[in-house]
Structures are given as C-alpha cells and as structure tokens.
Amino acid sequence: MIDHGLVRSVWYGHDDDFNKISNCDPQGGAGEASPVSSAAFTGHRKGWSDYAGAGIAAQKPEGIAEGDVQDRHPGKAGPDVKILMDSSGWIEFFTEGPLAERYAAYFSPRHDRIIPTIVLYEVYKKIKRERGEETALLVSGQLSASHVVQLTESIAYLAADMSLLYGLAMADAIVYATARDQDAQVVTGDADLKDLPGVIYVK
C-alpha cells in the first residue's frame, strides 16, 4: 500500500489538501469519496526507515532497470536526484493505478521534482474529464507544489530538435527537452520515451 501520509508530509508538511481530494464528489460536491479514490490518498503511516528512498541508501523501485536510478551525491542530506515525472506517472499515482506504488517511491525527500507546464495541462485535462472540475483543481494544486518549469524559447527549440532526432510527438518532445534543459531524469511509463538517455521507465 502507498504510504500517502508520508508523501503528504514530505510534500506539504500536512494532510489537509489531500484529504480534501479524497472527500470530493466527482460532480464537485462533498460526501462520498471521488473515483480518484480515498484509497489513493490514505494508508497507515510508516516510519522513515520503511519508505523507499529514506535513510542513507534508497531501495530501487520494482520494475526499474538496474542502474537507472542514480545517486549523484551519496550520503548527502536533502534532495540529490532531480526528476521530471511525466503525465503518465502523475495520473497513475493520483488514480491509484497498478503502478502507483512504484511512482510513490519518487516522493521521497531525496528527489527534487520538476514539472513542465504541458504536464499541468495534460493531467488537469484528464482528471477534469474523468473526475470533475473540483477534483481536477485540487490535483492541480498538488502538481504546482513541485517546481514548475515554463516553456521557454530555448526549451521550445530544443524540443523541436529532440522531436526530429527521436521522432517524438510534440508533448513528449517538450517533456524530454525540459528534462534535458534542467539536468533531470524523466520518470515515465510512456513506451515512446523508454529507450532515450536519461529516462527511467516504470513498468
């Protein structure tokens, strides 16, 4: 089970905003839990030593190829791996999909998360279409707590180059170019990105 209590405390220092999501009706009212699911945001609280990524050495999430997760500064306090989780990862995590547990490992204190604006667009659009506007707004608040990276002119040109080089669709190219620009690893379940350098493919 995902320890969402720990994820909340690492991310915000409190539970309130995630609790609001778990109590949302898909049509925007209060009462029954939304299909985003209270199960997706609750769970027993573990100690730090029980959580992947806590302590001196992190456990490698199941399904990640050996050597994909790099320790840039072993033993250093604070975040030491910069990651960009793409839309597939955020949606899987928020909707408690089959791979949610593996994505949860990237909410440890040792991961510095960045998010491009196109991921905000994709996740908000999908959650609003399937769960309703209020839930989508609450989810977007969680996304914005990460470091949001704007689509700059230089990233746009780099994305065009990446699209031509690797045959990527526009959104994938922008995600990948943003990660390259920010010296971050891409965490994704998107098969179109899995063989590119600097990509951690979750399956």
Short synopsis of the structure:
The chain has eight helices and five strands. It has 203 residues and is α/β, with parallel strands linked by helices. It has a five-stranded parallel sheet with strand order 3-2-1-4-5.
Secondary-structure class: alpha/beta
**CATH architecture descriptor text of the domain at 61-201:** 3-Layer(aba) Sandwich
Q: Unreliable runs, pLDDT <50, ≥5 residues?
A: 6-15, 18-76
| Largest beta-sheet details | 5 strands, parallel
What's the helical proportion of residues? 25-40%
Beta strand %: 5-15%
Helix/strand order: HHEHHEHHEHHEE
Shape: globular
Q: Count helical runs.
A: 8
Account of the protein in words:
By secondary structure, this protein is of the alpha/beta class. It has a domain at 61-201: Rossmann fold. The chain is built from eight helices and five strands. The protein has a five-stranded parallel sheet. Helix 7 (153-166) crosses helix 8 (170-181). The protein is globular. It starts with a helix and ends with a strand.
Topology of this protein?
Blueprint: H1 4-11, H2 16-22, E1 81-85, H3 87-94, H4 100-104, E2 111-116, H5 117-131, H6 133-144, E3 147-149, H7 153-166, H8 170-181, E4 185-188, E5 199-201
Parallel strand pairs: 1-2, 1-4, 2-3, 4-5
Helix pairs in contact: 2-6, 3-5, 5-6, 7-8
